[in-house]
Every structure is written in structure tokens, then in C-alpha cells.
Amino acid sequence: MHDQRNDKLANIIVNHSLELKEGEKVLIQGTGFASEPLVRAIVKASKAVGALPVYKFENQETIREWLKDASPEMLELAAKTDAYQMKMMDAYVGFTAPENNMELSDLPGEIMRLYMEKYNSPVHMKIRLPHTRWVVLRYPTSAFAQSAEMSSEGFEDWFYNVCTVDYKKMGQAMEPLKTLMENTDKVRILGPGETDLSFSIKGIPVIPCAGEMNLPDGEIYTAPVKESVNGVIAYNTSSIHDGFKYTDIRFRFEKGKIVEASANNNERINLVLDIDEGARYIGEFAIGVNPYVDRPVNSTLFDEKIRGSIHFTPGNSYDDAFNGNKSALHWDIVLLQEEQNGGGEIWFDEVLIRKDGRFILPELEMLNPENLS
User: Are 285 and 222 a contacting pair, CB within 8 Å?
Assistant: First the structure.
């Protein structure tokens, strides 16, 4: 049965997120065959504006088999062929619809490190991110609903609500926060457990995100001055990275560098952070504001937009908010600060701007959930 919600989402992707024009080339990449209805809707919407869509499907089971005992030569070959295709594109849409969110969880950490270095970095970090207009998202599956601890029907309704929020209204509400961040030097983050973190964002560009690159969207990001980060952050959400679910993640910083890292698997998380020199420095600091994303669902793309949250990201810094840090890693990990999650505070230059997930400065109140819903 045709689901008109896919048409609405495809329209946002084509006309708001990517702003596709006649003759532009767009690669639509779906991982998981359940996503076929949305792929079809995006192809249709792309052709309607005169764009030239190219699509391909993958699935996690085949990716797992491909990566088992993968050689550097095999990954480099795949990177060369996919990089050639990516260079031809003006835009990119990528989404996954996995039937098993943990399909890659038993692959060795060394294999995933090799994949990030030999494939992901040359194709996505070096070509897609800086040279195309792109948007990434997920597609609702039973596995995704189960991971989110929701019924399939309930998760579908939640998914389309969070992805099709009024992004124009959100973008307007972000402008005062953008201006404030551009004029801020010192940031202090307080949160549950041991979290007490300080750093500078002086001189780093500030980027509001209201449906342009991620769906769902609802964050505003910058980056810390590379060597300014000091203190401890104890994240209170789990994070699935390369198929492994990390919990109880804790980092301690000295002069910008993660000097201590722990989680439910200390060896594995330190292997991730040792992929290259930049992986132990922070590439992004962001504040989440999507009013409908009210809980973690074990998917970074959703969790990083949770209202009342921040994410503090080891690894690569985006070119548009560049702090000098380069890495094959970019790992968004989320700290929740609403009262029911332990609360927390954000201070800009010794002024409290958000407490327990709610903005308290009058010019920022439009970003509170009841004003964006």
C-alpha cells in the first residue's frame, strides 16, 4: 500500500534539504531493501524537478560478508570505484533500513578501523562531505522499532513526526543562538556523574541545521578550539559504532586530547580512538533542539537531535566549522541534560544559557519544545 508520508519526506529531501535543480546528478543509496518505497519516492521527486537520479541498494548481511577478513587492497579498490562515482554527483541521499542493527557487531575492531581508513575516509570524508550537497537518514524497520523499544506502528508514527517537523520555523528560531555562539569564547558543560567540561569556541564558525543535511534535523554545531578542552564528560546514552553498542562512555581531556577513555569495552573504544592522531581530539560541539526527538533510540542520527541534549564528537572537524582537526573518525556521542535524565547546565562566558534542557535567556526561548512543536 502506498504511504503518502514517504512522498512528504521525499519532497522535503529534494526541495528543502538538497534543493535539487534541473540537470543535477544525485546518488540515492539505500542499505536494506525495506527502504525501497522511500527510494522510489525520492527518484520520482528528483525527476519531477528535472534532476538525474542514480540509485543503488546494499544490505548489512552482504556488507558483513564483504568485510570479513577484508584486505587493504580490496577496500582500496572499492574506494576507488565509489570515489569515481561520487565525484560525478552534485548531491547524495543515503539511508539505512537494517533488519539487524547489530549485524556488524562481531567483526574485529581492527577490520572496522581498516574500513574507516581505506574506504570511508576517501569516499565520504574527502569527497561526499566537502563536495556534494548531502542528506542522510534512516528508514523505519521492525529492528529499528525494537531497538527503540517501541511498537512498529508507534515507531513509524514517531519517525515521520520527527523527520517532517517545520524546519523553516526551526531555522528562524536558531538565529539568536547562532549569534550568541558566534560571540562566545568560554563554554562550560555540567551534567550527571562527573561531567564538568570547559573549552573555547572563539573564532570557530557556527552552523545551524534545520533539515539541510540530516533528517531528522535540529542541531546547531561548532567546534572547540582544538587544544582548549579540559575536564571530564560522562555520556549517559549508549552509542552504536561500527556495529558495536558502547555504554558508560567516559572521556577525560587535557589540553584538548582524550587522555583517558573507558566504556563497557575499554580495549575496543581505545582502539577506535587510536585510529589516527586526530581521533583523540574533538571535532564538533553541538546542541540538539528537535522537539519531537524526546528519547534515545540507539541511532546517532536521531539521538544527536534530542531536545535538551548536546553531543561532543571525537574525530574529524567539518570544513564549515573547522578547528584544524582531521581524522578518519567522526563519532557523535550524546549527553542528555533534561531533568529526567539527570539535568545539566550550559554556560557561555559565565552566563547560564540552558538549565536541565531548557533555554532560559528570553531570546532563546523559541527553541524550547513547546514553541517548536
Answer: yes
Contact indicator for 193, 234 with CB cutoff of 8 Å: yes
Written as one string, the DSSP assignment of 264-290 is SSHHHHHHHHTSSGGGGSEEEEEEE-B
pLDDT value, residue 93? 97
pLDDT in tens, 259-284: 999 999 999 999 999 999 999 999 99
For the whole prediction, is pTM greater than 0.90? no
Q: Which residue segments constitute the domains of the chain, with CATH numbers given?
A: 4-163 (3.40.1830.10), 167-372 (no CATH)
Provide the sign of the torsion angle of the four alpha carbons 94, 105, 72, 324, taken in this order: positive
Give Cα separations from 342 to 21, 194, 291 (angstroms): 46, 12, 19
3-state helix, strand, coil in the chain (%, to 5): 40, 25, 35
For 190-253, the three-class secondary structure string (H helix, E strand, C coil) is: ECCCCCEEEEECCCCCCEEECCCCECCCCEEEECCCCCCCEEEEECCCCEEECCEEECCCEEEE
